[in-house]
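User: My advisor asked me to double-check a structure prediction for Endolytic murein transglycosylase before group meeting. I don't want to rely on an old file, so could you generate it fresh from this sequence?
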Amino acid sequence: MLRHLAANVLTVLIVAMVAISGVIYWGQSQYTAPGPLAEPTVITVERGARLDDVTETLLEAGAIGNDTIFRLGARYDGYDRRLRFGEYEVPAGASMREILALFASGRSIQYFVTIPEGLTSWEAVQIINDTALLTGEITEIPPEGSLAPDTYSFERNATRASIIDRMQAAQETILAEAWANRQDGLPLDSPEELLILASIIEKETSVPEERFDVAAVFVNRLNQGMRLQTDPTVIYGITLGQGPLGRGLRRSELDRATPYNTYQIDGLPPTPIANPGRAAIEATANPSEAPYIFFVADGTGGHAFSVTYAEHQRNVARWREIERSRQ
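Assistant: Sure, here is a fresh prediction for Endolytic murein transglycosylase from the sequence you gave:
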């Protein structure tokens, strides 16, 4: 009888084990099988969200079909302790395990804001304040020249202040590297002076291959005790960086003494006049060895460079003829 009882118990255990194995196999297959989403769907994991919160969000979005299996799988794989807040694009047909892996990876949706080279800090702040999906408002304009132009990625609800912080940190790094690798004998006494001159070069040309020659012109003029005589500094003295002038300069403005009018002052203006990019900063730190003293627009978007004033006057005459032909 005992033998018969033992056989029955063994049979029950075997059946139970088979049943449990079947349930586990079914659960695992459900956990890793393609999910019900028919198209990519954006799901937000809120800051501080728990596994139950995430599960409810996914159920409401139709991204999972069985909340029990989702919870069990998350705990078994340890994803319940590794979920990271953010906005995620869940692919169509993503399995429960794939969704959890995505939420644990932190690879949330990235947005972008671009600050072009040569904008003033006031103009850069306008772009950042007008950029949707960021939070907070920039009310204090950062020092001129302190922002590195670039395209910056961010997550939804990142702060605008964090973008400014990243731009300033990047510009500090760029400037420090350029100063450490600068050419010997530059007439610049500090990284700040290099930044000032780089901002002028940034405003004078948008042609990459010209930057080193434009830098050479200003370095040569400084070395010879000549005034820089550059229009962008005069414009900055009028607008103080709060938007473009929107018209040509008047003779009275060229003759008016301001701290930024390099037709009237010796040396550099007191601050940068824009936010120069890496290329302009590096060109300023390592200008070409050309002996140029002058340059003027050549009608192609670039400039004609010259060593003597007589040659410069001929280039100016050609440029004025081009201007007249376009009227």
